[in-house]
Amino acid sequence: MGLAGPSGPSARLTSVAASGPNDVWAVGMRTAPSNPRPRTLVEHWNGHSWSIASTPNVGWLRTVAVPAPGDVWSVAGRTVLHRLPSGTWSVIRVPHLPPESNLVLVSASGPGDVWFAGFQKGDEYAHNSYGWHTLVVHWNGRRWHVATTPNPTRRDNDLGGIVALSPSDVWAAGYSQDVHGRPRTMVLHWDGRSWRTVPSPSPGAYYSVLWGMGRDADGGVWLTGDYGVSSHSHMTILLAHLVGDGWVLTPPPAASPLGSVTGASGASAGDAWAVGGEPSSSLSILHWNGTSWDRVVPQGHWITNSLLSDVVTVSPDDAWAVGERGSNGLIAHWDGSRWTRAVSSSVAA
Protein backbone atom coordinates (compact mmCIF):
# COMPACT_ATOMS: atom_id res chain seq x y z
CA MET A 1 0.00 0.00 0.00
CA GLY A 2 2.89 2.32 -0.77
CA LEU A 3 2.79 5.75 -2.29
CA ALA A 4 3.30 6.25 -6.00
CA GLY A 5 6.79 7.10 -7.14
CA PRO A 6 8.05 9.56 -9.75
CA SER A 7 5.88 7.96 -12.47
CA GLY A 8 2.64 9.44 -11.12
CA PRO A 9 1.12 11.83 -8.59
CA SER A 10 0.12 10.64 -5.14
CA ALA A 11 -1.61 11.96 -2.05
CA ARG A 12 -1.99 10.79 1.51
CA LEU A 13 -3.98 12.21 4.41
CA THR A 14 -2.64 11.43 7.87
CA SER A 15 -4.66 13.48 10.36
CA VAL A 16 -8.07 15.16 10.76
CA ALA A 17 -9.51 17.56 13.34
CA ALA A 18 -12.56 19.82 13.63
CA SER A 19 -13.93 22.75 15.60
CA GLY A 20 -17.48 21.99 14.46
CA PRO A 21 -19.58 20.46 11.67
CA ASN A 22 -18.66 23.22 9.20
CA ASP A 23 -14.97 23.45 10.05
CA VAL A 24 -13.11 20.17 9.48
CA TRP A 25 -9.44 20.07 8.47
CA ALA A 26 -7.35 17.21 7.09
CA VAL A 27 -3.59 17.28 6.47
CA GLY A 28 -0.98 15.14 4.79
CA MET A 29 1.18 15.21 1.69
CA ARG A 30 1.11 15.01 -2.10
CA THR A 31 3.67 14.57 -4.86
CA ALA A 32 3.80 15.40 -8.55
CA PRO A 33 5.31 13.35 -11.42
CA SER A 34 7.97 16.01 -11.89
CA ASN A 35 8.85 16.18 -8.18
CA PRO A 36 8.44 13.12 -5.93
CA ARG A 37 9.40 15.09 -2.84
CA PRO A 38 6.38 15.35 -0.46
CA ARG A 39 4.59 18.69 -0.51
CA THR A 40 2.12 20.10 1.97
CA LEU A 41 -1.51 19.04 1.59
CA VAL A 42 -4.31 20.68 3.60
CA GLU A 43 -8.01 20.11 2.93
CA HIS A 44 -11.02 21.89 4.43
CA TRP A 45 -14.68 20.91 4.83
CA ASN A 46 -16.96 23.97 5.04
CA GLY A 47 -20.16 22.06 5.64
CA HIS A 48 -20.86 21.57 1.92
CA SER A 49 -17.70 20.41 0.16
CA TRP A 50 -14.02 19.58 0.57
CA SER A 51 -11.39 21.82 -1.03
CA ILE A 52 -7.60 22.03 -1.00
CA ALA A 53 -6.36 25.05 0.94
CA SER A 54 -3.63 27.27 -0.48
CA THR A 55 -0.78 27.09 2.04
CA PRO A 56 2.98 27.56 2.21
CA ASN A 57 4.87 24.37 1.44
CA VAL A 58 6.57 23.04 4.57
CA GLY A 59 6.59 19.36 3.59
CA TRP A 60 4.59 16.44 4.93
CA LEU A 61 2.17 17.47 7.67
CA ARG A 62 1.67 14.59 10.12
CA THR A 63 -0.99 15.85 12.53
CA VAL A 64 -3.46 18.74 12.93
CA ALA A 65 -5.32 20.48 15.76
CA VAL A 66 -8.20 22.97 15.49
CA PRO A 67 -8.78 24.54 18.93
CA ALA A 68 -11.19 27.21 17.59
CA PRO A 69 -13.02 27.90 14.30
CA GLY A 70 -10.46 28.61 11.59
CA ASP A 71 -7.55 28.32 14.06
CA VAL A 72 -5.45 25.50 12.61
CA TRP A 73 -2.13 24.13 13.87
CA SER A 74 -0.02 21.52 12.10
CA VAL A 75 3.61 20.43 12.16
CA ALA A 76 6.30 19.09 9.83
CA GLY A 77 9.63 18.35 11.47
CA ARG A 78 11.02 21.52 13.02
CA THR A 79 8.41 23.75 11.39
CA VAL A 80 4.91 24.63 12.54
CA LEU A 81 2.20 25.74 10.11
CA HIS A 82 -0.46 27.96 11.70
CA ARG A 83 -3.65 29.40 10.25
CA LEU A 84 -5.19 32.37 12.01
CA PRO A 85 -9.00 32.63 12.10
CA SER A 86 -8.59 35.55 9.69
CA GLY A 87 -7.38 33.08 7.06
CA THR A 88 -3.69 34.02 7.07
CA TRP A 89 -1.17 31.17 7.13
CA SER A 90 2.17 31.58 8.89
CA VAL A 91 5.29 29.42 9.03
CA ILE A 92 6.89 29.23 12.47
CA ARG A 93 10.40 27.99 13.12
CA VAL A 94 10.13 26.71 16.68
CA PRO A 95 12.89 28.28 18.79
CA HIS A 96 15.24 26.44 21.16
CA LEU A 97 14.66 22.99 19.67
CA PRO A 98 17.48 20.53 20.48
CA PRO A 99 19.73 19.54 17.57
CA GLU A 100 18.73 16.38 15.73
CA SER A 101 15.09 16.61 16.76
CA ASN A 102 11.71 16.59 15.04
CA LEU A 103 8.11 17.36 15.98
CA VAL A 104 5.39 15.12 14.54
CA LEU A 105 2.37 15.55 16.87
CA VAL A 106 0.08 18.38 17.93
CA SER A 107 -2.92 18.75 20.26
CA ALA A 108 -4.61 21.77 21.80
CA SER A 109 -7.13 22.40 24.55
CA GLY A 110 -7.54 26.01 23.36
CA PRO A 111 -5.88 28.69 21.20
CA GLY A 112 -3.46 29.52 24.03
CA ASP A 113 -2.65 25.94 25.01
CA VAL A 114 -1.04 24.07 22.11
CA TRP A 115 1.25 21.07 22.66
CA PHE A 116 3.68 19.51 20.20
CA ALA A 117 5.55 16.22 20.60
CA GLY A 118 8.25 14.30 18.80
CA PHE A 119 11.74 12.97 19.37
CA GLN A 120 15.32 14.08 19.89
CA LYS A 121 18.71 12.37 19.85
CA GLY A 122 19.27 10.59 23.15
CA ASP A 123 22.11 9.03 25.09
CA GLU A 124 24.78 6.65 23.91
CA TYR A 125 23.65 3.26 25.24
CA ALA A 126 26.41 1.28 23.49
CA HIS A 127 29.51 2.16 21.51
CA ASN A 128 28.43 4.56 18.74
CA SER A 129 24.78 3.63 19.35
CA TYR A 130 22.41 6.40 20.35
CA GLY A 131 18.78 6.11 21.31
CA TRP A 132 15.92 8.54 20.77
CA HIS A 133 14.38 10.52 23.60
CA THR A 134 10.96 12.10 23.98
CA LEU A 135 10.39 15.74 23.05
CA VAL A 136 7.45 17.96 24.07
CA VAL A 137 7.08 21.67 23.24
CA HIS A 138 4.35 24.01 24.52
CA TRP A 139 2.86 27.24 23.11
CA ASN A 140 0.94 29.23 25.74
CA GLY A 141 -0.22 31.96 23.39
CA ARG A 142 2.81 34.15 24.09
CA ARG A 143 5.96 32.07 24.13
CA TRP A 144 7.46 28.67 23.35
CA HIS A 145 8.78 26.31 26.00
CA VAL A 146 10.68 23.04 25.53
CA ALA A 147 9.54 20.76 28.35
CA THR A 148 11.59 18.34 30.40
CA THR A 149 10.16 14.86 29.75
CA PRO A 150 11.05 11.41 31.12
CA ASN A 151 12.56 8.55 29.14
CA PRO A 152 12.01 5.07 30.60
CA THR A 153 15.05 3.57 28.86
CA ARG A 154 18.35 4.64 27.32
CA ARG A 155 17.31 3.14 24.00
CA ASP A 156 14.49 4.39 21.76
CA ASN A 157 11.63 6.32 23.40
CA ASP A 158 9.14 7.31 20.69
CA LEU A 159 5.87 9.22 21.06
CA GLY A 160 2.98 8.36 18.73
CA GLY A 161 0.16 10.46 20.15
CA ILE A 162 -0.65 13.42 22.37
CA VAL A 163 -3.96 14.65 23.83
CA ALA A 164 -4.32 18.00 25.63
CA LEU A 165 -7.43 18.13 27.82
CA SER A 166 -6.46 21.32 29.67
CA PRO A 167 -3.30 23.30 30.51
CA SER A 168 -2.82 21.00 33.52
CA ASP A 169 -3.94 17.68 32.01
CA VAL A 170 -2.02 16.44 28.97
CA TRP A 171 -1.27 12.86 27.91
CA ALA A 172 1.36 11.52 25.50
CA ALA A 173 1.88 7.90 24.45
CA GLY A 174 4.18 5.72 22.38
CA TYR A 175 6.71 3.05 23.21
CA SER A 176 10.17 2.53 24.68
CA GLN A 177 12.63 -0.27 23.95
CA ASP A 178 13.73 -2.50 26.82
CA VAL A 179 17.29 -3.81 27.24
CA HIS A 180 16.53 -6.53 24.68
CA GLY A 181 15.33 -4.00 22.12
CA ARG A 182 11.68 -5.07 22.45
CA PRO A 183 9.13 -2.24 22.39
CA ARG A 184 6.90 -1.72 25.43
CA THR A 185 4.06 0.78 25.70
CA MET A 186 4.90 4.16 27.22
CA VAL A 187 2.48 6.76 28.57
CA LEU A 188 3.45 10.18 29.93
CA HIS A 189 1.25 12.64 31.84
CA TRP A 190 1.49 16.38 32.49
CA ASP A 191 -0.26 17.56 35.67
CA GLY A 192 0.49 21.25 35.28
CA ARG A 193 3.84 21.02 37.07
CA SER A 194 5.85 18.18 35.55
CA TRP A 195 5.80 15.28 33.11
CA ARG A 196 5.97 11.77 34.56
CA THR A 197 5.72 8.21 33.31
CA VAL A 198 2.55 6.35 34.32
CA PRO A 199 1.80 2.60 34.13
CA SER A 200 0.30 1.47 30.82
CA PRO A 201 -1.00 -1.85 29.47
CA SER A 202 1.58 -3.79 27.46
CA PRO A 203 -0.05 -7.15 26.66
CA GLY A 204 2.39 -8.47 24.06
CA ALA A 205 5.16 -10.71 25.32
CA TYR A 206 7.20 -9.88 22.20
CA TYR A 207 6.23 -6.25 21.67
CA SER A 208 3.52 -3.68 22.46
CA VAL A 209 3.37 -0.35 20.62
CA LEU A 210 1.08 2.67 20.90
CA TRP A 211 0.74 4.47 17.56
CA GLY A 212 -1.81 7.10 18.55
CA MET A 213 -4.25 8.60 21.03
CA GLY A 214 -7.73 10.08 20.93
CA ARG A 215 -10.37 11.65 23.12
CA ASP A 216 -14.12 11.76 23.44
CA ALA A 217 -16.49 14.60 24.24
CA ASP A 218 -16.84 13.41 27.85
CA GLY A 219 -13.15 14.02 28.51
CA GLY A 220 -12.13 10.40 28.01
CA VAL A 221 -8.80 9.42 26.50
CA TRP A 222 -8.05 6.39 24.30
CA LEU A 223 -4.83 4.57 23.42
CA THR A 224 -4.44 2.87 20.03
CA GLY A 225 -1.79 0.50 18.70
CA ASP A 226 -0.95 -3.17 18.29
CA TYR A 227 1.02 -5.97 19.94
CA GLY A 228 2.54 -9.38 19.26
CA VAL A 229 2.94 -12.35 21.58
CA SER A 230 5.87 -13.88 19.64
CA SER A 231 8.21 -13.17 16.75
CA HIS A 232 5.92 -15.19 14.46
CA SER A 233 2.54 -13.88 15.60
CA HIS A 234 0.30 -11.49 13.70
CA MET A 235 -0.33 -7.95 14.88
CA THR A 236 -3.22 -7.80 17.33
CA ILE A 237 -5.19 -4.59 17.83
CA LEU A 238 -4.45 -2.80 21.11
CA LEU A 239 -7.09 -0.47 22.54
CA ALA A 240 -7.23 0.99 26.05
CA HIS A 241 -9.41 3.56 27.82
CA LEU A 242 -8.53 5.88 30.70
CA VAL A 243 -10.71 4.97 33.69
CA GLY A 244 -10.07 7.12 36.74
CA ASP A 245 -6.30 7.33 37.05
CA GLY A 246 -5.54 4.08 35.25
CA TRP A 247 -5.67 2.47 31.82
CA VAL A 248 -7.99 -0.44 31.08
CA LEU A 249 -7.63 -2.70 28.04
CA THR A 250 -10.76 -2.92 25.89
CA PRO A 251 -10.46 -6.07 23.73
CA PRO A 252 -11.03 -5.71 19.97
CA PRO A 253 -13.97 -7.54 18.40
CA ALA A 254 -13.41 -11.28 18.05
CA ALA A 255 -14.34 -11.06 14.37
CA SER A 256 -11.48 -8.66 13.63
CA PRO A 257 -8.68 -8.82 16.23
CA LEU A 258 -5.76 -8.59 13.79
CA GLY A 259 -4.19 -5.42 12.45
CA SER A 260 -3.44 -2.07 14.00
CA VAL A 261 -5.33 1.09 14.90
CA THR A 262 -3.80 4.56 14.92
CA GLY A 263 -6.70 6.98 15.49
CA ALA A 264 -9.62 7.22 17.92
CA SER A 265 -12.32 9.79 18.66
CA GLY A 266 -15.71 9.76 20.34
CA ALA A 267 -18.94 11.71 20.79
CA SER A 268 -19.19 10.35 24.34
CA ALA A 269 -17.78 7.72 26.67
CA GLY A 270 -20.25 5.27 25.14
CA ASP A 271 -19.86 6.21 21.48
CA ALA A 272 -16.36 6.19 20.00
CA TRP A 273 -14.58 5.22 16.78
CA ALA A 274 -11.16 3.71 16.13
CA VAL A 275 -9.58 3.33 12.68
CA GLY A 276 -6.58 1.65 11.09
CA GLY A 277 -5.77 -1.23 8.77
CA GLU A 278 -5.95 -5.02 8.58
CA PRO A 279 -3.48 -7.60 7.16
CA SER A 280 -5.86 -8.16 4.23
CA SER A 281 -5.11 -4.62 2.96
CA SER A 282 -8.57 -3.55 4.03
CA LEU A 283 -9.27 -0.56 6.23
CA SER A 284 -10.43 -1.19 9.78
CA ILE A 285 -13.29 0.72 11.44
CA LEU A 286 -14.30 -0.18 14.99
CA HIS A 287 -17.14 1.25 17.08
CA TRP A 288 -17.28 1.41 20.89
CA ASN A 289 -20.79 1.17 22.36
CA GLY A 290 -19.81 1.73 25.97
CA THR A 291 -19.08 -1.90 26.80
CA SER A 292 -17.43 -3.47 23.75
CA TRP A 293 -15.94 -2.85 20.31
CA ASP A 294 -17.79 -3.87 17.14
CA ARG A 295 -16.37 -4.12 13.64
CA VAL A 296 -18.12 -1.93 11.06
CA VAL A 297 -17.71 -2.91 7.40
CA PRO A 298 -18.71 -0.17 4.94
CA GLN A 299 -20.10 -1.06 1.52
CA GLY A 300 -18.14 -0.30 -1.65
CA HIS A 301 -14.94 -1.22 -3.43
CA TRP A 302 -13.13 1.70 -1.78
CA ILE A 303 -12.57 -0.27 1.44
CA THR A 304 -9.95 -2.56 -0.20
CA ASN A 305 -6.31 -1.55 -0.66
CA SER A 306 -7.06 1.17 1.88
CA LEU A 307 -5.67 2.41 5.16
CA LEU A 308 -7.21 4.87 7.60
CA SER A 309 -4.87 6.94 9.76
CA ASP A 310 -7.10 9.16 11.89
CA VAL A 311 -10.71 9.95 12.82
CA VAL A 312 -12.57 12.87 14.39
CA THR A 313 -16.10 12.72 15.83
CA VAL A 314 -18.13 15.92 15.63
CA SER A 315 -21.38 14.42 16.92
CA PRO A 316 -23.04 10.97 17.09
CA ASP A 317 -24.13 11.32 13.47
CA ASP A 318 -21.12 13.19 12.10
CA ALA A 319 -17.59 11.72 12.00
CA TRP A 320 -14.73 11.90 9.51
CA ALA A 321 -11.85 9.49 8.88
CA VAL A 322 -8.84 10.03 6.59
CA GLY A 323 -6.09 7.93 5.06
CA GLU A 324 -5.09 6.62 1.65
CA ARG A 325 -6.28 4.22 -1.02
CA GLY A 326 -3.58 3.17 -3.40
CA SER A 327 -1.86 6.44 -4.28
CA ASN A 328 -4.84 8.67 -3.53
CA GLY A 329 -6.02 10.44 -0.42
CA LEU A 330 -9.04 8.87 1.26
CA ILE A 331 -11.81 10.64 3.21
CA ALA A 332 -14.74 8.75 4.71
CA HIS A 333 -17.83 10.13 6.46
CA TRP A 334 -20.21 8.71 9.07
CA ASP A 335 -23.72 10.19 8.88
CA GLY A 336 -25.24 8.30 11.78
CA SER A 337 -26.22 5.23 9.77
CA ARG A 338 -23.33 4.34 7.45
CA TRP A 339 -19.79 5.17 6.34
CA THR A 340 -19.36 6.47 2.78
CA ARG A 341 -16.45 7.75 0.75
CA ALA A 342 -16.31 11.52 0.37
CA VAL A 343 -15.25 13.40 -2.73
CA SER A 344 -12.31 15.80 -2.58
CA SER A 345 -9.63 17.15 -4.88
CA SER A 346 -7.05 14.65 -3.59
CA VAL A 347 -9.39 11.67 -3.92
CA ALA A 348 -9.66 9.89 -7.25
CA ALA A 349 -12.65 7.64 -7.98
Provide the fold topology.
Blueprint: E1 10-20, E2 23-32, E3 35-45, E4 50-52, E5 63-68, E6 71-76, E7 79-83, E8 89-93, E9 101-110, E10 113-126, E11 129-139, E12 144-146, E13 157-166, E14 169-177, E15 183-190, E16 195-198, E17 207-216, E18 221-228, E19 236-243, E20 246-249, E21 260-268, E22 271-277, E23 283-288, E24 293-295, E25 306-315, E26 318-325, E27 328-334, E28 339-341
Parallel strand pairs: 17-21
Antiparallel strand pairs: 1-2, 2-3, 3-4, 5-6, 6-7, 7-8, 9-10, 10-11, 11-12, 13-14, 14-15, 15-16, 17-18, 18-19, 19-20, 21-22, 22-23, 23-24, 25-26, 26-27, 27-28
Protein model, in words:
The protein is an all-beta fold and 349 residues long. The protein contains no helices and 28 strands. The strands form 6 sheets. The protein has an 8-stranded mixed sheet, with no helix packed on it. Strands 1-2-3-4 form a 4-stranded antiparallel sheet, with no helix packed on it. β22 (271-277) and β23 (283-288) form a beta hairpin. The model is unreliable at 1-7 (pLDDT under 50).
